[in-house]
Structures are given as structure tokens and as C-alpha cells.
Amino acid sequence: MEPLDLDISEGELELPSEPMMLNMGPSHPAMHGTIRIVVELSGELITKADVQIGYLHRGFEKMCERGTWTQVFPYVDRCNYVSPMLNNVGFALAVEKMMGVTVPERCQYYRVVLGELARICDHMICNGAMCMELGAFTPFLYHARARDIIWDIFEEETGARVTHSFGRVGGMAAPPTQYFKEMIRAGLPRVQKFLSDSERLLVKNRIFLDRLEGVGRISKEDALALGWTGPTLRSTGAAYDVRRAHPYLVYDRMEFDVPVGTTGDNYDRFMCRMEEIRQSMRIIDQALEQMPDEGPINIDDPRIMLPPKGEVYTTIEATIQHFKIVMEGIKVPAGECYSYTEGGNGELGFYMVSDGSGTPYRLRIRPPCFAVTQGLEQMITGLMIPDVVPTFGSLNMIGGECDH
Amino acid sequence: MSKQILELLQARFPGAILETHSQFGDDTAVVDPAVWREVARFLREDPRIDMDMFVDLTAVDYLWQGAYPRFEVVCHLRSLQYGHRIRIKARIGEEDGSGADIDSLQPIWKGANWFERECFDMFGVVFRGHPDLRRILMYPEFQGHPLRKDYPAQKYQPLIPFRDVPDKLPPFGPDEGMSFGRQIHDQHAGYANEEAPKPPEA
After folding, report:
1. Are A228 and A375 contacting, i.e. CB atoms less than 8 angstroms apart?
2. Bigger pLDDT: A128 or A404?
3. Mean pLDDT across A333-353
4. Buried b (16+ CB within 10 A) or exposed e, A250-285
5. Judged by CB atoms within 8 Å, which residues 74-93 of B form the interface with A?
6. Which of A134, A260, B28, B194 has the smallest count of CB within 10 Å of its CB?
7. Which domains are present in chain A?
8. Which domains, and CATH codes, for chain B?
9. Percent over 90 (pLDDT), chain A
10. Whole-prediction pTM value?
11. Using a CB-CB distance cutoff of 8 angstroms, which residues of chain A are in contact with residue B110?
């Protein structure tokens, strides 16, 4: 019996050269979010990619056409379930833009503070999850603990940790609690501590940096044409932040910087988010400083706001008013309107068509990460399989929002 | 600022801008669908307008309002340099949903790709010249277009048929896999109702 390896010279070895198709997802341990990427591989290089979404489609827009305007709030909560408060505020502002009302100043500050807290959560989880997928589990746990501090504040304020459904047209569901400011002032330094701990673990780590720097680049022009907004767009150098470019609520009174990157690679996206967390904390500090302690939260308009419960039980007028608002819904003037705010991932838009009744005729959500995810295909083509993980992680695709 | 864009548009495409308005501060131009792509190209390439950000593209089904071209394709744009926005719309489609086709904007903004696929998926609007027009949120076997007003919201199209076990009560059937029975919100119809819904009474 002759040994097998004797006669084989290197030149005769033929490796299979036809491209290999590989499915990543829809359920894959290294990807957060339910998404399927069909990649065509030549060796380990990706020559073609097809990103398929839709696994979390729940018919958000169709459902919104069946209830009243107020009943949309629980649905928007579940669109971006990492920062539901930003969606709540965004939708409330959209309906208020259509009705031509403005909430009292105290409520505006309240919305800013709660919204920025949600933004901190959003960015922390995105960065933490990306680290986790790269094998750095500890920073994720630090971030999760920091997020828990913020969730405790949310629980105290709204009664729910994740899906608050706290926004209302013309105000909020409840006024700030007695120790609102103290709670946040005590909590944020602890969040800051966890953040700097995790940052120290990461930004000088050679392995971490090698997998981020120069990977998943995109040019500013491409990002703009793809409809990117938010931290992912800013990482390419375009300083577009809705809070700065088209200020809403009281953002024009706040001092904050808009961090931008230079090359639009994974590292820039990571650092943009890190810096934005710090800027959000600055905004919260200023907002707490300026927020009045007394004053109404809801606008005084019987067409929109429910009457006080005590009156509903004792007077006929309040009972009728309550009944009309609950059964028929708030009447929004007929027309069409596009309202946009800065969500966790970028410009969160609502395009609404009203026929003058209490039900939306058409409610279109413009989810920021839908546009961001469509750039993935272009970014991972030409990269290797392991680069998909940080690139996808740094885009922060939120399934509920992307798939409506 | 954005009002000037509407004037520029009207000067460049006389007769093709059917209507303009600025409701709630959003400047809008209703465009003849025949020049849809030319208008978009003009908005993108004219240095005075420079709409380089593709914001949104969607459609609205005006069946219940009795509008004749049934669908309205709505596109939102923004300029990074000037910070102004505009909404352009085009009305297309017969009453039965046929003939709803319009030029694709994908050659002008790459970002139109997925938005147009979604619009095709949800409304059945066909974009001419789109490189890869297939369903995006629904599965390929899905019949119909869910965001059309005549698509019943309660309709079921399961990929795997429901199990039919003779002596068993739900959870078999449409309730399978749900921890609770499906509630019937519409008093006049069960969940198997697959008739086209009627517009709400005024």
C-alpha cells in the first residue's frame, strides 16, 4: 500500500473555484435583529450580498388606520423598542403640528429630558451589542447595567420600563414625579461611570480597533443618497442633526455639539455614538436646570385633553366630553403633513394624511434604520465574513422599526 | 426659501406642475407622472436646489375619498447644503388598481431602491426601470397588496396551512400558536371575513 501524499505536487491541487452561497440569519447568534443576508462567497470574500428584511413585519401602518390617533401610541412604542420614548414624543409632535397646538413649556422640557434619556439607552445598547458580537462581553454588561439605571428612572416616571406609551397628544400621560430631577441628577453620574469604564476597556484594545478601523466605509455622498440620517450619517462627516438643523421643542435653547466622523467606518460610528451620549447628558443637565418646577403639563383644550376623572364621574358635560374623545377620537384637521424629529437612529418621520375624522386616513412612518440597512449591501460587498458582524452591529438595525 | 423651489419648478416645467400648496409649512408640488423622473433629476442637479438627501418615498391610496387617479406617490427630499425640504407627488392608477406605474427614482438616488420596493410591496405601484423590483416586507408567495384600502386587515395568508384536527378545539385553526383566542374587534364580521372593507360612514 503506497502512501497517498507522495505523488501530489502543489501545482496539481485544485481548489473548488465556483462561488459559494451562504445564508446568514434570519436567526444568527452573531447578529442582533432578525435579518437574513444571502452572501455569495469567493473564499472568504463577499462578492455579492442580498439583505432581506421583513421578518418582524407586523402591519404597523395598516393597524394605525383602524383606531383613533391616540391609539397609535402603543404601536409607535413597539417600532423602536430600544428608545420608545423618542418615538412617543415624535408622534405626539407630529399630531400637534397638524392640529396647530403647542404644549406648555414645562412639558417641552419634560419631553426633552425623557427623550434624551431614551437616546442614551439606544446608543449604549447599540455600542454594547456591537462589542458583544465581537466577543467583548463585559462592556455590554456594563452598558446593560447603565441602561438599567435609566430604566429605573423611566419606571418611576411612567410606570413601565420599556414600552411606556407615555406620550399624549397635547401633553404627557402624567406630570413629573416629585423627585424627578433628583433622581436623574443622582443616576447620570453612575451611568457616566459605567460608560467610561467600558470605554477604557475598548478604545485602546488592539483587537477591537483592528476590527473597526477602516472597515465598512461609506462616502458622504453615498450616505446622503441612500437616505442615511443620524449617527451613521454624521460619522461620514455630514453634520446633520434634526435637533440642530430644524430645532423643535426647546432644543434651540440648549448648548450641545454635533459630533462628526471623518471616514464613515465602523470606528467613526462607534465614537459618534459614544460622544452623543455625552452630549445628551449635557442637554439633560441644562434642561433640568431650566425646567420650571410648577406649571401645567397638558394644554388646556377640551377638544384634545380628557377631563379630570373626578368631573367625569360627577358632571354630565365632562362625561360627554370624555365619551366623545374616547369613542370618536381627537379630530385632526384634514390635510397632509410630514413631521420629523431626531430619533435614536436618525430622522424619524411621520407622514400623515387626515380626512378630518378621529382616525388616521394614512399614517406612514419613515423609519431611520430602514434607509440605513439598505446601505449594508453596498458596504459588505468586498469585505470578509467576519467584517459583516461589526458593520451590521454599528448600523444599529432595530427590527421593529425597519420592518414596520 | 422652499417657496422659491416651487417657483423654479413652475418656471422649468410649465404645465407639468399640476398643483402646489404649503399646508402646515410643507411645500408640496403635484407633478405630472410623465415628467416624474425629470423633475426629480432637476431637483437633484440644479445647483440652486441641490436636493442631495433622499428622505422618504411612499404612496397613499385615495380609494375611499373617490379620487380618480387612485394612488398618490409621495416623495420627500431635503438639501444638506441649504437645509430646505420639498415634497413632490404624482397621481397614478385606475380605480381597480391597474395602470399604477411610474418611473423609478433609483437611478437618481440609490436610496430609492428599498423605498420603491416597499411601495410596490404594499401598494402594487410598479416602478419602471427599477433594477430589482420584488417584495421586501412580505414573502414572495403573498397575494395582493396589504396597504391598499380594499385589502381586508383581518385576512390570513399563512405560508403553512392550519392544522385541521377533527376532535380538537383551538389552539388549532387560526388561533394556533396564540396563547389566547383571537379577539374579534369588528362586531359585524368574524376574523375569517375576507371581503373588501367599506369606508367608514361619515
Report:
1. yes
2. A128
3. 91
4. bbeebebebbbbebbbbbbbbbbbbbbbbbbbebbb
5. 74, 76, 80, 83, 85, 87
6. B194
7. 65-402 (1.10.645.10)
8. 2-128 (3.30.460.80), 152-202 (no CATH)
9. 34
10. 0.88
11. 222, 225-226, 378
